[in-house]
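Entry for the shared binder. Reason: the reviewer on the internal report wants the predicted structure included alongside the sequence.
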Amino acid sequence: MSTTDSVNIDISQKDVPEKQKKEKRSFKRKILRVLLWIFIILIALILLFTGYTLICNSVDKKKIKNYSEKYSKKVEINGHQMSYSIVGEKNNQTIAILPGMGCPSPIIEFKPLAEALSDKFKVITIEPFGYGFSDDVVDTNRDFSTMISEIREGVKKIGINNYYIMGHSMGGAFSLKWSNQYSDEVLGVIALDSSVSGTEKDISKEELVGSYIPFKKMNSIGLGRLIIKFGQAPYSMDTTYPYTDEEIDVEELLLINHSFTKGQWDDIETFLDRLASLEGVKFPDRIPTLTFLSKDNVKQNTKWEGLHHEILGNNTRNEILVLDGSHYIHYDQKNSIVNKIKEWIQ
């Protein structure tokens, strides 16, 4: 081997580590470029989604205003607008419907039931502050009694002095408190699988509130809109009723834009405390109560039916009926409920 060959071999061997270093640096640069492009794309997507959400919110605001004028009436309570709908205005007997906790659009959700009763009764569907088309009251703290007095004032301003209350879920708990607060006005109560004192011991406040937080967070950044528009909508409606596309749009718009208002979030956070405050409270003896319970809940909670018996006053017209179906018993058993109410209210 010549001296020149020996030198070339040495140089070639020295070039190997240098070549590997260059390849390693080149690979790192490629990785950084890929990461940079991923970052740029993510920022672009976030900006596009933010812009899309802002545009949608602006469009939604106008649509909700138009829908509010079309689907609801308003009464002013303490400087704020409370929304309601009324059907069967020609009738004398009045039923006032109180929705459950977190109901996006009481007017739309209870429309099938209200219409089915409207041939015999004047039916008012009330949207408490923070629900549906009603204002969200953020400047005052409102306790249980105050909220009931607000809704009751709304009923009075509509021109109704005596009435039956029909409450679903949390609305049923409101009915109990209301009946004791204004017993001289209430003609009777219809409870639709209503919430009842004693069940608050089955779940902690942290568990209850925590179950709502994921969707609240998703809704706050606009992801709730995508879930509702392109996925499984997290609301319940009567699937047997021929809702129009516009009515479904109302439900979705209010769920996207008016979920987790201060009024609704206060209800979630104080729900168990309100139930606890009703411990030992019964309906006044003079007020008859017709209670419809979900068989699903009766099976799931062995105390469910018994607790509802405990809150009844001493009235011969009291009845408790357990019907096949879910917590949304007014969807599952609408016809049976309507027929029974017409028979019960004479």
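Summary line for the report: The radius of gyration is 29 Å.
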